[in-house]
User: Which sequence fits this backbone?
């Protein structure tokens, strides 16, 4: 009798789990909103299950990753310099996630611009290999220490290399004083398409991303102008719902086309949307200060 009940219990858990995986991964995909997505009570479920944040003000953040190799960081340098120039013109602060192994290749003037321009810095691990295959605590601690020394501020955010996290990352984050992961993705359920940031085991997971390297949105896979149209469509869909929106800009490159497309996007955000640009660290500080569930 006991084993029969245990069996039914396990089966129920599996079915419920599968249900949520299907819901989160297929129906709640903000890139291509389905009819189902339009009527699904996200906010209610979010508040109920995850104590999510009601971002009434439609906050927007953009994260740019600086990583991978010595050549890449060098190549990034000029792109980052020009990106900051454009971002400053539209008063849009950028959250830079930096893998620290090759940080010494970054130019002093770029570091200075990030420091002084109200931009944000979070950890991207020390080496750019999957966090899940590293000693997570030491990788996070090492990169956090380096970034804190270079940028002279407390580092509270993390995005694992290749966006990979697992439940141990939450533990490692807590151990090292990291307050948020710049992605809702843990290994078992891809929460990243979730519309609001939410707190899990004491660490904020910033869902709500529009990934630039998501097939269609990756600038070098489609013509930049087309890419901007897709971004705008995704952004306006989220804005209408009052969701938090973050743009993830992985493998940022330096082409003129890409930078002018970004400039057009910044102009659109500033002039045609009610979005409030904010750095991810500021968003999390704010959510920590206001009581847990609400940003107002
Ligand atoms: Zn990366």
Assistant:
């Amino acid at each position: 009798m006991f084993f029969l009940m245990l069996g039914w219990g396990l089966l129920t858990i599996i079915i419920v789990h599968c249900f949520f995986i299907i819901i989160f991964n297929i129906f709640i995909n903000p890139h291509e909103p389905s009819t189902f997505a339009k009527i699904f009570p996200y906010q209610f479920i979010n508040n109920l299950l995850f104590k999510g944040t009601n971002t009434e003000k439609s906050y927007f953040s953009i994260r740019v990753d600086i990583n991978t190799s010595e050549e890449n960081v060098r190549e990034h340098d000029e792109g980052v310099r020009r990106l900051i120039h454009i971002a400053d013109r539209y008063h849009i602060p950028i959250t830079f996630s930096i893998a620290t192994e090759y940080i010494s290749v970054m130019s002093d003037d770029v570091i200075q611009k990030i420091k002084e321009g109200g931009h944000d810095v979070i950890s991207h691990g020390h080496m750019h290999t999957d966090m899940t295959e590293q000693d997570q605590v030491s990788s996070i601690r090492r990169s956090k220490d380096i970034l804190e020394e270079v940028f002279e501020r407390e580092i509270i955010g993390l995005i694992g290399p290749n966006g990979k996290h697992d439940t141990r990352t939450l533990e490692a984050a807590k151990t090292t004083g990291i307050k948020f992961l710049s992605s809702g993705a843990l290994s078992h359920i891809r929460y990243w398409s979730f519309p609001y940031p939410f707190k899990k085991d004491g660490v904020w997971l910033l869902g709500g991303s529009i990934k630039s390297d998501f097939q269609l949105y990756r600038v070098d896979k489609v013509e930049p102008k087309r890419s901007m149209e897709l971004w705008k469509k995704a952004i306006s869909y989220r804005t209408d719902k009052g969701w938090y929106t973050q743009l993830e800009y992985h493998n940022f490159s330096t082409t003129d086309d890409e930078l002018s497309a970004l400039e057009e996007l910044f102009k659109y955000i500033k002039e045609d949307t009610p979005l409030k640009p904010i750095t991810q660290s500021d968003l999390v500080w704010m959510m920590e200060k206001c009581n847990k569930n609400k940003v107002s």
